[in-house]
Amino acid sequence: YFYGPNRHERKIIMESNDIEKLINDTLNEQVPKEQLRLPNTIRPLHYRLWIHPILDEYGEKNFTFSGRVKIVVNCLKETNKIVLNWDELNITDSDISIYSTKGTMSESLKTPFSHPLTRRDLGELGEEDNVTMFFAEGNSMLTTTEETTTVTATTDATVEIAETTSESSKTKSELIPWPVKEVSTNEENLKLTIGTGKNLQQGEEYMIDIKFTGQILNNLVGLYRTHYIDLSGKTRWLVTTHF
């Protein structure tokens, strides 16, 4: 019994694996650098990423994943849009939230969170038996420390208050919802553009919260699947990435 991709997936995989064609197309295309590079209006400071892969041979959601990312950014130039790299992720307008951070958010991030994943963090990712949650945290500016941090939070309709307590500090930060006007994707340049209802202000920090879903293909691109045969002759699947 072989459980593999359907016909549509096979077509995608064959096209994606034609490396020679991809190289030739890349060398021949004349694309302005402005379309390839992200705008310099915002700069990422910190991110937290959760990925929830499903490897259930008999489940209808087999070889799919859901995820969530929270990105803290600093606005370098006033703008009404946020542009991110994107590729084959299902994201709707309701999956994106933007918050303005007040005063102490950057201070609380000087000690990266080390608490375990909570139901509040997962949000609407869903729960599945026998699956593994992958968690990644990145930082382009801050230094990781060994200090233990615990987090508790409450939420109301308008303002989210996150209280962070550590051995050396206790800070509070307000996350004030920022209007999202529209969301669009560019499949040619692999970009996700988020239009905001109000301009992001220079010098201010914002948090972008995005939920997403996608397919786990076997074309060695992004989050992909592979397999091996165990000692009993049974096929075992696993998920990996170049991240």
How many beta-strand segments? 13
Work out the strand percent: over 45%
Named CATH architecture = Sandwich
Helix content: 10-25%
Characterize the overall form: globular
SS summary, helix count: 5
Structural class: mainly beta
Please report the first level of CATH classification, the CATH class.
Answer: Mainly Beta
Count of spatially separate domains: 1
Lateral strand order in the biggest sheet: 5-1-2-11-4-8-7-6
Oligomerization status of the protein chains: single chain
Question: Topology, please?
Answer:
Blueprint: H1 7-16, H2 19-28, H3 33-36, E1 42-54, E2 64-75, E3 79-85, E4 96-102, H4 105-108, H5 119-122, E5 134-139, E6 149-155, E7 160-166, E8 170-178, E9 180-186, E10 191-200, E11 205-215, E12 223-229, E13 235-241
Antiparallel strand pairs: 1-2, 1-5, 2-11, 3-10, 4-8, 4-11, 6-7, 7-8, 9-10, 12-13
What would you say about this model in short?
The protein has 5 helices and 13 strands. It has about 240 residues and is mostly beta strands.
Please tell me about this protein's structure.
The protein is mainly β and 243 residues long. The protein has one domain: Immunoglobulin-like. Helices cover 13% and strands 45% of the residues. It is built from five helices and 13 strands. The strands form three sheets. It has an eight-stranded antiparallel β-sheet. It has a three-stranded antiparallel β-sheet with strand order 3-10-9, with no helix packed on it. The radius of gyration is 20 Å and the shape is globular. The N terminus is likely disordered.
